[in-house]
Amino acid sequence: MFAKGEPLFSFEFFLPKAPQDLDSFVREVKELKALNPDYVSLTYGAGGSSRAQTIEAAGRIQRETGLATACHLTCIAHTRDEIASALDRLHALGIRHLVALRGDAPKDQAVLPPQQRDFGYASDLVGFIKRRGHFRMGVACYPEKHPEALSAEDDLARFVAKVSAGADWAITQLFFDAQDYFRFVARARAAGVSVPIVPGLMPVTSYSQLKRFIQLCGAKIPPRLEERLIPLQEDPAAIVREGIEWATEQGLELLRGGAPGIHFYTLNRSHSTSEILARLRRQ
Fold first, then answer.
1. CATH no. of 8-282
2. Which of 12, 144, 242, 275 is catalytic?
3. What is the mean pLDDT of residues 3-22?
4. Burial status of residue 228 (CB atoms within 10 A of its CB: 0-12, 13-18, 19 or more)
5. What's the rounded Cα separation, in Å, for the pair 235 and 237?
6. Theoretical Cys-Cys bridge with 180: which of 143, 162, 203, 223, CB 3.0 to 4.6 Å?
7. What is the 3-state secondary structure (H, E, C) of 63-113?
């Protein structure tokens, strides 16, 4: 996927909660095809909720748009047999790219400790998929440390284990300071990681939403960005414009510093992503 030597741009979507919204969602993805993303990815809920629907939707998107589609696959609440069945279905649908994740614990049920699960960690899932063949895999990494990790060193060791198990590329959690990405990549390279590490960017579209997201994922808001957003928080249109400006500046710094591409967390909204990508490609 990264062999062409030019930056790759990809979009992440999530499956609509209401089944009746799927047709309009697929139409929106088709409209974004005009932006020529190198691939799109499709995620689903905590603990693997709506997994089957997401798999079928991924197949439909790839079939109807012609865009390479990477389906998210989580393992925290699934058995080996369930994952094997999901992989069989994905392969039958023509999906050849996955984003392999541990996933978040489901909200409505207890999760067994890692040593009692079929897949204790994401690295176990990666190894299982690798042994079956057929798929290329992306994995997650965290420039500012996973919120559950005991330390930055422990978090990096988990990432190295995923890559060693067979990951082909990595996508970072959202972050807002390019220097956090460069520092993380330097540490990963020193630890022996050689796969492409793609920065994940989320254009700010709502100040309150941004605050909720960073609490969940452990990211921080740089003081300069906070200073730019606080005076605008009651003006939704101005927040969107500022989010586009910041993400464009961040994207340019990342690409000029050697990042292999940009993965956009679109939140199923196309305006900001379209504008940012157009600006990046004009540079």
1. 3.20.20.220
2. 12
3. 86
4. middle
5. 6
6. 143
7. HHHCCCEEEEEECCCCCHHHHHHHHHHHHHCCCCEEEEECCCCCCCCCCCC
Q: What are phi and psi of 44, to 5 degrees?
A: -145, -175
Cβ(181)–Cβ(174) below 8 Å: no
Confidence of residue 4 (pLDDT cuts 50, 70, 90): low
Interior angle at CA 211, CA 274 and CA 146, nearest 5: 90
Nearest to 134 by CA among 174, 102, 166, 179: 166
- The torsion angles phi and psi of 72, rounded to 5 degrees, stand at -70, 145
Q: At what angle do helices 152-165 and 178-190 cross, to 10 degrees?
A: 60
Tell me the DSSP string of 145-170: --TT-SSHHHHHHHHHHHHHHT--EE
Tokens of 31: 């409209």
Number of H helices, E strands in the chain: 10, 9
Tell me: pLDDT of 47 over 60. Answer: no
Q: What is the pLDDT of residue 157?
A: 97
Instruction: Give pTM, 2 decimals.
Output: 0.94
| Residue 12 is a catalytic residue | yes
Percent of the chain with pLDDT over 90: 74
